[in-house]
Each structure stands twice: as structure tokens, then as C-alpha cells.
Amino acid sequence: MNTRFVYCDETGDDGKNTLSSDIFVLTSIYMPSEAWNENYKRIKDFRKDWKDKYGLHVTEEMHTKQFLTDKDPFRNYGWTIEQKQEMLKEFTLLIASLDIRIINTIIDKTKITTDEYNVLENALTYSVQRIENDSAGDWNYIIISDKGRISPMRKTARAIRAYNPIHSQFGGMINKPIKYLLEDVLEKDSKESYYIQICDFVSYFVHLFYTVKYLKKEKPKRVSRLIDDVFVGRVMATLRDAGVLNLKANSSNEYGLVIYPK
After folding, report:
1. Which of 92-96, 164-168, 236-240 bottoms out in mean pLDDT, i.e. has the lowest?
2. In which domain of life is the source organism classified (predicted)?
């Protein structure tokens, strides 16, 4: 049986309080193990090109929120708005060219009606369920996540191996334990993983997209100085049209966005 690598990262606060963020987005990208080296080479070559064109060192972490809001270390480079927009376009096209699949799970905290709702646990469960469905028993997978939330993620992954209730097509709930997840959720610093940095990019743009399209709210002011709503929509459309978004994760959404609570 083949194995796939799954990388995860998130945007937003996983607490139920909406003061810091209305939504929590968990992005998972996954790829066949045999595609890992070619994907990595393509990313590394891309970062070398960026070094030549823009001066950004290949080991500098691409942290999307800081990039968009002109925080350190990015403000020190003195890029123009046009250069930064071009970099965002290039990074989007890179992601679209990779041999990967992407699942985006959104927890809309404005719809939570119970104090018992666990944001991170549910986001990870919904994501893993869809990766498991995509596997259909043809491959297994290993999950690698950034630091910070590793302990509750491991706990959740262990729990759904034994108890994973889902709705039955005949009504009611049935237990369908996760079978193809290998090992505990593993930890890796985002500074050392281009793949987690890609998750971070996609996750943040999904967060912006949901905010402006679904919640009908404004983007952060610093972000709006760099990109408009049309730009955000084009990033999402590029990823969708390239076929890297797993649209089957939610066939009722044109971008495959998994949105809960319903």
C-alpha cells in the first residue's frame, strides 16, 4: 500500500471566542510519497529564483500574514506594492503546479451554539474524515503539523481511530473508525518545512475569502492596502481551476470548502 504525506496548518484562533477571529481554518495538503522529492525540488528552485529576483533568502520562512501586513522581516526588503503582488501571484502559480491535493476545513465560530463545541478537535476530525474518504483504502497516510497545537491534535487523532461517528444514509449515526492514518500526528517547525508554509498561505487566503464572501466583512486594513477582494478571489479560482483543491471534500461548494457548524 502506498503512503501519502499530509501537512497541516491553520489560520485563526481555535477558541470559541470570536473577538480574535470569527473563523478557524485548517488546511491540509497531501501528496503521494513518490511525488515528495519532485514537489520539493520545484519549490526549492522557485525559492532560489525568488532569491535572485527579490533577495528573499531560501531559508526565510514565508509567513503569509506577516507578508501581507508588511511586518518584519518582510518590511526590511523595501519591495513595492507591485512587486509584492507579483510575488503572491507567483507563489499561487507554484502551488497550483504541484502534485498535491488540498482540503480546507472552516469552523465558523459565529454559528457555534454550545459551550461544549471543540473548534480544533472538530476541524481536524472533519479533515481526516475526508482524507480517509479520498484514500478509500488504496493508500495510508502520515500527518505532519506545525508546533503549538500538537498535543490536542494527537489526542483527537487517537480518539477517532476508535470512535468516529458519522451520519448513516439510513438515518442515525454509525461508528466508522479511522483505519489508514499511521502513527501519531508528527510535529515539524514551519520554518523548516516549505509544505507547512504552503498550508499557511492557502489557509490565510481561505480565511480572507470566507471573510469577504460569506461573512460579508472587510479584510484587515493592512491587507487591503496590498490586495483587493478580486485578488483574493483570483487566488482561490487559480487553485480550483488547477485541480489541486479537493472539490469532493464538499461537492456542494465550488471550492470544496468544508464548513461547519451547519
Report:
1. 164-168
2. Bacteria
Cβ distance 98 to 39 under 8 Å?
Answer: yes
* Domains of the chain and any CATH numbers: 2-260 (3.30.420)
Question: Residue 68 belongs to what H/E stretch?
Answer: helix 64-68
Q: What is the mean pLDDT of residues 217-224?
A: 95
Measured CA to CA, the distance from residue 71 to residue 77 in angstroms comes to 11
Mean pLDDT of 84-108: 98
**Per-residue H/E/C for 4-21:** EEEEEEEECCCCCCCCCC
SS3 for 101?
strand
Greatest Cα-to-Cα distance within the chain, rounded to the nearest angstrom? 60
Q: How far apart are CA 202 and CA 208, in angstroms?
A: 10
* H helix and E strand count, the chain: 8, 8
Non-local (6+) Cβ contacts of 147 within 8 A are 187, 188, 189, 190
pLDDT reported for residue 7: 98
Q: How far apart are CA 80 and CA 86, in angstroms?
A: 10
Are the C-beta atoms of residues 116 and 261 closer than 8 Å to each other?
no
